[in-house]
Amino acid sequence: MPDLSETMERINQLVAQNRKDEAVKLIFHLVVGYAGKKDFINAELLRKKLFEVDPMALNEIIQTAEIIEEKKTASIDENHMAIWSGLYNKISQEEANLIYYAMKPCTFNTNEFVFKQGQRNTRLYFVNHGRLKMTWLQNNYEYLLKSLNPGDIAGQDTFFSNSVCTTSLITLSPVDMRYLRQETVLQWKNERSALVAK
What are the angstrom distances between the C-alpha of 73 and each of 35, 63, 88, 186? Predict the structure, then answer.
């Protein structure tokens, strides 16, 4: 794919030359290409540019949205979807794609802290693989509160409030998780309040 800044410059030149139809075709072609390569960030940026260039290019606007969603859906990790089917079955495919692609993957080795008691944590963790323990430390004694396995969520206490961790989360095996950032969900409260309510 060509450099995005050069592409945007070319699109702007076409618009300045009153060749809007050519700009729309170029953007459409590029959105399809970026989506096919799973570069959804650039595909979405170009789709927004399509709105700017010609808000009446409804066919292309609708088609690019469908293509991006179709490619996103096709590239979601099936294991993750199976583990979290209870979550994803309650929302639309578009919302599922939004959540999945907002989540960031992370891995930990055995006996590593994911978060520590007394520290800030602004992430909500979704366990895909491995085992963890949630502990509470008092008077230098560690109390086991619960074990976490695939399909469990961790970090809710600090994710939904402005406080420090009251527990620690420690891996018992190699762990594969995905997490949502607090600032992402705060942004959704303004832009996608219906999703946050679910």
Answer: 11, 15, 12, 24
